[in-house]
Write a structure and sequence with these properties.
homodimer, alpha/beta, Rossmann fold, 8-stranded mixed β-sheet, 39% helix
Chain lengths: 216, 216
C-alpha cells in the first residue's frame, strides 16, 4: 500500500520503518523536503521508500499517518493539504500534549473534545482513525517486544477505514482479537486522556516498555 | 480496623460489605441517619456493622472511604466534618463525572486538577489516597471475579496511608505486586481521566466485568 507518514520524530521513524518492513511503499513527509532526519532515515531504507514535504507524503499515500506532535498536528495537516487528504484513511497516532505544560503535562483539547475530533471536523472527507497513541512507539511498531497478550485500541467513524487500519496493525504483529474497536471518533477522548494515566505508569515503572491487556 | 464508608450506592454497598467480610468494623454513612438503603444494607450484616450520618461514619473510622458520586463528594466531606477527617486515611474511590453531561460524559475537574487534589486541598490534614476508581465495584471488592492477573492503582502524598490502603486491598484479594503506586496525588488526574477510556471499553465489550493488566 502507498502510505504517507507525516513526521520525522521517533514515532514517525519507528512506524515508517515498520511499514516499509511489512511491505508498504512509504514517503516520509516533513516541513522541509531537505529535512536531515528524513534523509538519514531514507538512507537506511530500501528503494521503494522516499521523503518529501508534508504535501508530497500526503499526495503519495492511499493512507496518511499523522505522527507529528499534537500541538502542531493541525498546522501540519493544513500544509499536507485538504485535497491530498480527501477521501483517504487518516491514521492519527498523536497525543495533544501542551508543550512546556509542567508535570504532569496538560492536554489541549481535553474533556469535551479531542484532537482526533478536531482533525475530523477540519477535514470532513478524511476518514480519521485514532489508534496506537496509548503506548511507546517501539511497542506500536512491534508488539512482540512485550511478552504475552496486550492490546491496541482504535476509534473512528468509518468502518472500512478501521478495517484498513486493522490490516496494517495485523501486519505489525497485532493479533486481530487484541485490536479493540472502541467505536466512533468521540472515543478518541478516552484514548487521548489515557496519556496522563500512561505517564503515571511510566514514572512508576521507570521505563516505557509496557502496555496494557484488557482482562475479562 | 474501624472504617467509615460514605455513600449508600452500589459502590458504597459493595465495599462496605467486603470490608465487613474481611474483618473490619464498618459504619455506613449517609445524609440522613434513617436512610433506607443503609438500613437495608445493615440488615444483611453481622452485629459489628452500623449506619449513621456522614459525620457519624467519619467519626467512627480510623479510615474513611469516600464512595459518593464525584459531583457531591466535597459537600459530603463537609457534612462529614473536617474534624472527623483530620489525620485520617481518606480513601477516595469516586469519579468526578458531571451529571447529565451527555455521552461520553464529561469530568469536572479535568486536565489541570483532579477531585482527589481538591479533596486534599480542602482537607489538608486528611491523608488522601485515590484508588479503585478504575473498575466496576464488584471487581474492586473481589478481584478473583476475573481470571488471571489484573491491577489496581493508587496515588497520594502519604506513604504510611498508602501502606494502610495496600493492606486493605490485600484483604480484598489484590496481590501485592498488582497494587501499583503511581506516586503523589497529582497522579490522580490520570486515574480520573482513565474513566473516559474505561467507558469506551465498557461500550465496546458490552459489560463491565473487566479490568486491565499492565504488561512489561
Amino acid at each position: 500500500m502507498r502510505i504517507g507518514v507525516l513526521g520525522t520524530g521517533m514515532v514517525g521513524q519507528a512506524l515508517a520503518s515498520r511499514l516499509v518492513e511489512t511491505g508498504h511503499d512509504v514517503v516520509m513527509g516533513s516541513r522541509d523536503a531537505a529535512n536531515e532526519k528524513a534523509a538519514a532515515w531514507l538512507a537506511t531504507q530500501p528503494e521503494r521508500a522516499g521523503t518529501g514535504t508534508f504535501a508530497d507524503a500526503a499526495a503519495h499515500g492511499e493512507v496518511v499517518l499523522n505522527a507529528t506532535g499534537g500541538a502542531v498536528t493541525l498546522d501540519v495537516l493544513r500544509l499536507a493539504g485538504a485535497d491530498n487528504l480527501a477521501g483517504k484513511v487518516l491514521i492519527d497516532v498523536s497525543n495533544p500534549m501542551k508543550p512546556d505544560s509542567g508535570f504532569p503535562p496538560k492536554l489541549d483539547p481535553v474533556g469535551d473534545d479531542s484532537l482526533a475530533e478536531r482533525i475530523q471536523r477540519e477535514f470532513p472527507t478524511a476518514r480519521v482513525v485514532k489508534t496506537l497513541n496509548t503506548m511507546n512507539c517501539d511497542v506500536m511498531a512491534d508488539p512482540s517486544l512485550l511478552p504475552g497478550e496486550h492490546d491496541v485500541f482504535m476509534a473512528g467513524e468509518d468502518a472500512a477505514a478501521k478495517e484498513t487500519v486493522r490490516s496494517l496493525l495485523r501486519g505489525f504483529g497485532w493479533p486481530d482479537a487484541l485490536i479493540r474497536d472502541l467505536g466512533g471518533i468521540t472515543a478518541a477522548r478516552g484514548l487521548e486522556m489515557y496519556l496522563i494515566f500512561w505517564i503515571g505508569l511510566r514514572v512508576s515503572l521507570g521505563h516505557n516498555a509496557f502496555n496494557i491487556h484488557v482482562v475479562t
